């Protein structure tokens, strides 16, 4: 009679491959694990050598304590570690690697060669492993420390290898992990080479110097020291001045007991401390180290070890917020008043009535000085000086007209817009029944709090979300640009040089075609610098660096969405970001222009993300509201 038992123990090789799925997700995971092992081995110098962003080779060389012959063999066994001995050790961990999974997982999905020697030994140990199978173990002459060579990652798991991104994307992840470990341990020297090109050469220094070595000399002027010591935790590190806040994320680092962590709650504490000093949507720079008794935290949550739990999160939040606020105050990071400026120049004199609500034009000094040759005629000229400024009083209207022009229209007269609205209305009325028709050309239009547009329609009131409407319009415009690669570019009179991080520069290389399709014109200048020569003609007026940084931030977010193709994802992201700029007061002409463009789009009812743009309140609904 056949056995009914169907459960069996998996072979070690398969179990290791399953474990590798959690620990080794991409080349950056291998770099992180091996660098942290080198730190645990008390190395003072760590070299990282890559080929093809780690696909074909990841080599990590350290001058740490090395391993004996027995330890070298045991290090590749699952759950074999020198970091913990008993369950209580899990609650006082101060080392980086402690699970005993990293080397076993790496060896299960790659071809591994390790050379290691302790200082007291004459010869070291060489071990070669292919897919968890040990091929060679022998004595070899080698320097003190450990040398790992990881070749052909995922060679025996083709499905995992196919899921790797392009070299530029994978290199960005490697750079992120490298920089985190380098920041956490400024007392250790690190070098990074990629395809025989030196990317980093960091000597052992203090933390402030390590930040400058990684991110550039421009950071020298923006760093301020932050420190707060309590009986529960100690906080130290550096924050950036508010005026140096950037539009891109990624330069915010928390380290707990020298371990990099991601913690949204603590990030909110820092942002709250900067409240009122940085513009909305900007991100301050910070590198903060938290020293805490390991018994108060739990790091045994996820194999990546970037998540952590505190036993008293509220206290940690309050202490971090207080430390950053104190640094902002002590170093006077908020913008100060320029006492050399004549602050009374634009204000009424004490003898004048208080007419602050009435816009006034200030007469320049040269207009008040009569020419001697003009004689008595100069008096009459003085009385008519304001004619020089005719046409400038309605600057607000001119800004509105300019906004209409930026949205792809001209400042035509009202009847022209009425004819356009009639055309659009007739077109929309022929659309499917589920689509709300455009208001009539002579319908009453009203803007509410620069946010909503109200219009009278046949059977009630139409409410249009102004920001959502612009999001739909911008989305279709950007998508067309990316597909046709024909974005209009406005040349800059003076090119602007901006500096990016290494990972952001890798992203620019990866998406160069898309960026230029939108209308940006730029050239590389040095290792991590760009010269911006032109910007898209239809973007809101802002500094070139802020615009480019916002674009990079949107590129980062759009790349995380794997469900959409590149033009679709990027168009959605950019439209959502820049539509915020159009929450402004609109003129009659601009409202009609907005409605024309909205009802000419492919779907005027919803944003690209599916959120409603239009809500129709019928007469019946309004009656029910008043009836209660």
From TrEMBL:
Recorded superkingdom: Bacteria
CDD domains: HATPase_MutL-MLH-PMS-like, MutL_Trans
Keyword terms: DNA damage, DNA repair
PROSITE patterns: DNA_MISMATCH_REPAIR_1
One Pfam match: MutL_C
Start and end residues of each DNA mismatch repair protein S5 domain: 211-329
Protein name, as recorded: DNA mismatch repair protein MutL
């Amino acid at each position: 009679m056949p056995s009914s038992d169907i459960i069996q123990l998996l072979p070690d090789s398969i179990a290791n491959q399953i474990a590798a799925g959690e620990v080794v997700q991409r080349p950056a995971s291998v770099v992180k694990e091996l660098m942290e092992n080198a730190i645990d081995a008390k190395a003072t110098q760590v070299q990282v050598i890559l080929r093809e962003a780690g696909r074909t080779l990841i080599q990590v060389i350290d001058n740490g304590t090395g391993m004996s012959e027995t330890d070298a063999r045991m290090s590749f066994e699952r759950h074999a570690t020198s970091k913990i001995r008993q369950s209580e050790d899990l609650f006082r961990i101060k080392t980086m690697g402690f699970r005993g999974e990293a080397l076993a997982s790496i060896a299960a999905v790659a071809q591994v060669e390790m050379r290691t020697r302790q200082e007291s030994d004459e010869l070291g140990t060489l071990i070669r492993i292919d897919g968890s199978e040990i091929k060679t173990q022998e004595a070899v002459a080698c320097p003190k420390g450990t040398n790992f060579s990881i070749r052909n990652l995922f060679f025996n798991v083709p499905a995992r290898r196919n899921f790797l991104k392009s070299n530029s994307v994978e290199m960005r992840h490697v750079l992120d992990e490298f920089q985190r470990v380098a920041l956490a341990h400024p007392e250790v020297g690190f070098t990074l080479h990629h395809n025989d090109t030196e990317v980093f050469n960091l000597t052992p220094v203090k933390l402030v110097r390590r930040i400058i070595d990684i991110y550039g000399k421009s950071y020298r002027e923006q760093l301020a020291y932050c420190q707060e010591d309590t009986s529960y935790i100690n906080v130290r590190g550096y924050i950036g001045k508010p005026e140096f806040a950037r539009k891109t994320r990624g330069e915010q680092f928390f380290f707990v007991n020298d371990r990099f962590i991601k913690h949204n709650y603590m990030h909110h504490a820092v942002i709250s401390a900067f409240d009122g000093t940085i513009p909305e949507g900007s991100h301050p720079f910070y590198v903060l180290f938290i020293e805490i008794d390991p018994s108060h935290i739990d790091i045994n949550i996820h194999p990546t070890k970037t998540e952590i739990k505190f036993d008293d999160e509220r206290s940690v939040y309050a202490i971090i917020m207080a430390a950053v606020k104190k640094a902002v105050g002590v170093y006077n990071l908020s913008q100060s008043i320029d006492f050399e400026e004549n602050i009374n120049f634009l204000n009424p004199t004490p003898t004048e009535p208080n007419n602050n609500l009435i816009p006034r034009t200030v007469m320049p000094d040269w207009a008040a000085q009569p020419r001697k040759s003009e004689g008595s005629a100069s008096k009459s000229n003085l009385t008519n000086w304001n004619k020089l400024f005719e046409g400038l009083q309605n600057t607000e209207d001119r800004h509105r007209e300019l906004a209409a022009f930026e949205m792809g229209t001209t400042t035509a007269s009202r009847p022209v817009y009425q004819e356009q609205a009639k055309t659009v209305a007739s077109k929309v009325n022929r659309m499917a029944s589920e689509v709300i028709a455009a208001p009539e050309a002579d319908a009453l239009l009203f803007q509410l709090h620069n946010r909503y547009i109200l219009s009278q329609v046949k059977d009630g009131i139409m409410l249009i979300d102004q920001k959502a409407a612009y999001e739909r319009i911008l989305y279709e415009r950007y998508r067309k640009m990316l597909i046709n690669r024909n974005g209009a570019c406005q040349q800059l009179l003076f090119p602007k040089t901006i500096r990016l991080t290494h990972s952001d520069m890798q992203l620019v290389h990866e998406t160069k075609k898309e960026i230029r399709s939108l209308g940006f014109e730029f050239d590389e200048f040095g290792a991590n610098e760009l010269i911006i020569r032109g910007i898209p003609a239809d973007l809101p007026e802002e500094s070139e660096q802020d615009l480019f940084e916002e674009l990079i931030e949107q590129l980062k977010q759009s790349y995380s969405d794997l469900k959409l193709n590149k033009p679709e994802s990027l168009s959605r992201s950019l439209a959502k970001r820049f539509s915020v700029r159009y929450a402004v007061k609109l003129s009659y002409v601009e409202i009609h222009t907005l409605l024309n463009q909205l009802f000419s789009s492919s779907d005027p009812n919803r944003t690209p993300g599916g959120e409603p743009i239009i809500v129709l309140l019928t007469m019946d609904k309004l009656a029910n509201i008043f009836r209660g």
